[in-house]
């Protein structure tokens, strides 16, 4: 369910010729499943930053094609620009977005580099998390000497390339080298102040950023104090993995602190905001809001929502959309202009446009079910009923967390609501998955069967699809049954005025279990692998009986209270 996504942000050494830039960027979308998010050219630097996202294998294929196209169109022997550079594709970092670790992204960086070296004959270096030695972690070290120094660098044993030729041949004279890495997501994040003073904004930036400020004899003035090596002594700032500076924005008529959050696992956006607010108050200023430059992972927005909900002692078991609203309002992300999550959150930009059952209105879902087609059927409806059931249990948990006099128990109810949301989300996913599973069986029966080979392939496809169409309702059974714990807890521990709601939720979960059990049995009878079929039926029978026992217990308890 949790798809692996990585972002790739190659910087190419062309920022002036729009035709070339567009031609290079266009190859990204020739790879299915990769979405081009941004193309940002700079004339002065003669450099363009291209951003795209997708699943890892697709992204490194798109990155390879981009590097190849850039090598064809950019001649580094004729390049000049203000930004340091040593190749047509100068840098190509891979950034984990969701479902993948930085270490795993580094493996993909190595695969990409190996292919670039072998197939394109372009030399290069791995940096940051993908680096092969400590000295190569820093991009500045890898790129030292730039293109002009590459001829000597490649033959220097210390700087033998990690991939590609260790010589400045005719190809390399044109393409230069490339630096490939895996690095953490970087957020460009500005915080708005109720002042026009750049100096005061800078003072706060120095309080916060990791590098802090240079130490002077008289505090902030006087002679710069030096260490034994003659380097300026620095007073560290409050937060790690943060770079920052103050500036005045004429367009808005305010001063801002412009931050680069270089590792949001160390310092997330909401911590940078809160600490800045504290420092601003100490200096007689006020934070009025903030501004996100570029894109952000969904995880970062949800963590911000959770952070502010905890501060308010409110339940974390609310919907994703509500958490994002809390984050936007708490951070003031709509202070200067409207904040549209669908345009700023990476995962939302990548949403599948395919029509889904769960995206229909209630009446639309009913009409779709009642139409002259076999799907959606009982499996999808069972999953949906289960989702409605646990939603009721989650509602009771959230209401209980707000009950007057129960303030010391808010975390207890929040934990149950979070569990309920997880069950609900899984069941909603299974609503569509059940219909997809049935579609796989239909596709199997439509396969050609003229030759013996085709008959065997068709037979195998139908068997695999039937097994999958049995596993999905089993998952519905399992999830709906497990979700009953939320309703059981709320019937006994939640607001007694909502006991009937929790009871209805439990009955819905029981319906989901029984309905999905029907599907398991009817599909399992067509499975040729009888060992598998009997095993899944046996496991289903156990869940079915347990769900009926809980239903009986719930009805008796609720009836004794109402």
Short account of what is shown:
With 562 residues, the chain is of the alpha+beta class.
Can you describe what's shown?
The protein contains 18 helices and 15 strands. The chain is of the alpha+beta class and 562 residues long. It folds into three domains: 178 residues, 2-Layer Sandwich (Formiminotransferase-cyclodeaminase, Chain B, domain 1); 163 residues, 2-Layer Sandwich (Alpha-Beta Plaits), CATH 3.30.70; 205 residues, Four Helix Bundle (Hemerythrin (Met), subunit A) (Up-down Bundle), CATH 1.20.120. Strands 1, 2, 3, 4, 5, 6 and 7 form a seven-stranded mixed beta sheet that branches. Helix 14 packs antiparallel against helix 15, helix 14 packs parallel to helix 16 and helix 14 runs antiparallel to helix 17. The radius of gyration is 29 Å and the shape is flat.
